[in-house]
Design brief:
Mean pLDDT: 86
Low-confidence stretches: 43-53
Number of helices: 3
Strand order of the largest sheet: 1-3-4-5-2
CATH architecture: Roll
CATH superfamily: Hotdog Thioesterase
Shape: elongated
Structural class: alpha+beta
Length: 156
Amino acid sequence: MNTEAPDREKLIGKQLRQATYTVSEVDVADFLGVVAEPEFASPVSVDGLAGAEGGGLAPPSFAPFVAVLGLLKTFDWREDFLFDYQTGTAMFGEQEIEFHRPLRVGEAVVIDASVHDVYEKQGKKRFDVIDVSFQIDSATVGDRIMSGRQSYILFK
């Protein structure tokens, strides 16, 4: 059994798979069922923002949900991060998002991501941090919706 940690620094710059996600009314309604945002009791229609998708706006707090879900579709733990989740532990770390415009219900988005940085840290045990940069764009219009970074903490 190999107990040596893999050298993940060679992953820096790696382009991950492109993924898509459609902001569904069901997902937004489920999200609103557990998040108290009274002004968004249901998706809100705003003149000029519904666009071709015809949907209202999703609440701003829904955007991190889209980023997390979308990013999980862009990589395979073993293949892209050299990580075996059956023998190791993975956690989400920091998340930083810059919003460029609101999400629309019914809108399809495209998620592009790459490994921005990898570094080792020491707590009670050594662990690696993989920092992933991402951009989320409209699949139909092509404009930027959000961008940012998210980190994953990997314990052997």
